[in-house]
Write a structure and sequence with these properties.
Helix content is 61%, strand content 9%.
């Protein structure tokens, strides 16, 4: 008998491949959220990426622009341009950090908060559609497991892809 006859056969179905399944989920999510944001985004800077930046700013968990960039997996120089565009659009402002007057923090404006509230409602509807094959309790379990897998990973080395770059490469977009 040859080695090939006794070796385990590889999975041949794409739906058994984690990367393929994850890619389909990401594409479905991206398509649904882009459609949901649609006209309401209008002049909203940087689309879905900008949405994630504003969510992170409003959470207040990232004390400065560098921490925002690291949290979102965005190059710090690119983050400067993103925040500049948000400032120009009146969605955020840079303020002196009360804990360290030499540093600045990024804070959402009232306009930024209002736009985010509208976008979050639209994105939640898109997420319900993307996860429509799951019952409500399954959706919550899926989200919980996904958060754990995404957030409880060891830190990446300097040679690893950042979160945004990894998704762009997986989807075949330009990094």
């Amino acid at each position: 008998m040859s080695n090939t006859a006794t070796a385990a056969q590889p999975h041949t179905s794409p739906d058994e491949d984690f990367g393929w399944t994850l890619g389909v989920l990401v594409r479905n999510y991206q398509n649904a959220t882009n459609a949901a944001m649609g006209e309401s985004v209008g002049e909203f800077p940087h689309g879905a990426r900008g949405y994630q930046v504003l969510v992170a700013v409003v959470s207040g968990e990232q004390p400065n622009q560098l921490a925002l960039a690291q949290h979102l997996g965005i190059d710090r120089t690119v983050m400067t341009y993103l925040v500049d565009d948000f400032v120009k659009a009146g969605l955020v402002e840079r303020q002196l950090n009360p804990a360290d007057r030499r540093a600045r923090i990024v804070v959402a404006t009232d306009s930024g908060l209002a736009i985010l509230a509208d976008l979050q409602q639209r994105v939640a509807e898109a997420e319900r559609a993307v996860l429509g094959a799951l019952a409500d309790d399954e959706r919550e379990l899926f989200r919980s497991l996904l958060r754990r897998v995404a957030c409880d990973v060891p830190s990446v080395s300097e040679h690893d892809l950042g979160a945004c770059e990894a998704v762009e490469k997986m989807l075949g977009a330009k990094a």
